[in-house]
């Protein structure tokens, strides 16, 4: 058990700026954030200082003692001694600060008479645990839809976008497919181009960093999202709507119990104007006459239930529209889907798409 816990902790260690997982330095103040170099530590300090909180110094440190903190220093330190991933690096952080994080309502994404959704928090200025317990869990359990803005921060978001654009140029994207085809042409149903990524491919390091941050947030939600016990996820589906009015008609991600319980989408569209560019995601919550309209704006993270509770569509897009989607699996439903698929007891004419799970824990 202790070994599994240690392995889990190592998996959660990565540079907060670039996602690198080797030769890390730990913040000596909060003991929960890591950096691959003093340069990245200093570059990220403007964002990290908003959430960096000093740990209880009365508790004996589990690792080597930190260096002394320069009192009142608003800058990250000039010196960041090279240590291994089990030692701390001094941040030079000031005493505990609080900020009034700007929160944006999502009224612009909802019909005028839509449900009263809470404000969307800024993912960069809220710890994953706090974001999960105070926002994502109650929002999902009440509405089945949850939006988090500024999830990765502009610099990291732009680096993810560059990875996606470079991937798109390789020609690896293919036409998106549908499980049950009722039209002569798949393009009549969906017009996106997609490719599947596990993050280990060359040039996809930032995409892997993104999914690790998604996984970290979902870990803090696990066991509290409905009755689900999440034990895995799909690879990341990187999708591009090339404009020209391409769309995805109204559909349900998981209509036949294939194990997917939560859909998680990260948007990468800088300066997106829905009135000009279209491309809204419209969700039609079951049992409601309201419609949620989600603007696919840059650095926005979206969660919603994957089953029949949330039919949705992508409206015609008139500019290139990028998104990265992963689906999280419920352990019991996934096991039943596998058994059903292997025994051939599934509904005739419906293929249960299992995909390849990737354990987020």
UniProtKB/TrEMBL annotation:
Compartment(s) where it occurs, according to its Swiss-Prot or TrEMBL record: Nucleus
Where does the MYND-type domain lie? 15-52
Q: Provide the residue span(s) of the region labelled Disordered.
A: 54-127
Q: Where is the Fe2OG dioxygenase domain?
A: 232-330
Q: Name one GO biological process term.
A: cellular response to hypoxia
- EC number(s) given by UniProt: 1.14.11.29
Which stretches are annotated as coiled coil?
none
Output the Gene3D superfamilies linked to this UniProt entry. Answer: 6.10.140.2220, q2cbj1_9rhob like domain
Q: Which reaction does it catalyse?
A: L-prolyl-[hypoxia-inducible factor alpha subunit] + 2-oxoglutarate + O2 = trans-4-hydroxy-L-prolyl-[hypoxia-inducible factor alpha subunit] + succinate + CO2
Q: Provide the cofactor list for this protein.
A: L-ascorbate
Q: Which InterPro entries match?
A: HIF_prolyl_hydroxylases (IPR051559), Oxoglu/Fe-dep_dioxygenase_dom (IPR005123), Pro_4_hyd_alph (IPR006620), Pro_4_hyd_alph_FE2OG_OXY (IPR044862), Znf_MYND (IPR002893)
* Any GO CC annotation of this UniProt entry: nucleus
Q: What is this protein called?
A: hypoxia-inducible factor-proline dioxygenase
Q: Which organism is it from?
A: Hippocampus comes
């Amino acid at each position: 058990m202790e070994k599994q816990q240690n392995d889990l902790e190592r998996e959660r260690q990565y540079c907060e700026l670039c996602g690198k997982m080797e030769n890390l330095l730990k913040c000596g103040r909060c003991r929960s954030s890591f950096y691959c170099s003093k340069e990245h530590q200093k570059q990220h300090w403007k964002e990290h200082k908003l959430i960096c909180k000093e740990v209880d110094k009365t508790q004996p440190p589990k690792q080597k003692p930190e260096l002394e903190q320069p009192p009142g220093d608003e800058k990250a330190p000039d010196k960041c001694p090279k240590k291994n991933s089990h030692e701390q690096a001094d941040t030079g952080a000031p005493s505990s600060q609080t900020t009034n994080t700007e929160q944006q309502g999502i009224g612009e994404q909802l019909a005028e008479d839509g449900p009263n959704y809470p404000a969307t928090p800024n993912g960069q200025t809220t710890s994953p645990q706090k974001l999960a317990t105070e926002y994502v869990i109650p929002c999902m359990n009440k509405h089945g839809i949850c939006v988090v803005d500024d999830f990765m921060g502009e610099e990291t978001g732009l680096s993810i976008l560059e990875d996606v654009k470079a991937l798109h140029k390789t020609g690896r994207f293919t036409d998106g497919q549908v499980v049950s085809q009722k039209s002569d042409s798949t393009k009549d149903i969906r017009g996106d181009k997609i490719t599947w990524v596990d993050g280990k491919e060359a040039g996809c390091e930032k995409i892997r960093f993104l999914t690790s941050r998604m996984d970290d947030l979902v870990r803090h939600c696990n066991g509290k999202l409905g009755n689900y016990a999440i034990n895995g996820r799909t690879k990341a589906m990187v999708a591009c709507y090339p404009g020209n009015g391409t769309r995805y008609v109204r559909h349900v991600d998981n209509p036949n119990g294939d194990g997917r319980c939560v859909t998680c989408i990260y948007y990468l569209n800088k300066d997106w104007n829905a009135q000009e560019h279209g491309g809204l995601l419209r969700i039609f919550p079951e049992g409601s006459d309201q419609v949620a309209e989600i603007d696919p704006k840059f650095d926005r993270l979206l969660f919603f239930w994957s089953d029949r509770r949330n039919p949705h569509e992508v409206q015609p897009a008139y500019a290139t529209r990028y998104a990265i989607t992963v689906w999280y699996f419920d352990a019991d439903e996934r096991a039943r889907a596998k058994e059903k698929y292997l025994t051939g007891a599934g509904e005739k004419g419906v293929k249960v798409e299992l995909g390849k799970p990737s354990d987020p824990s």
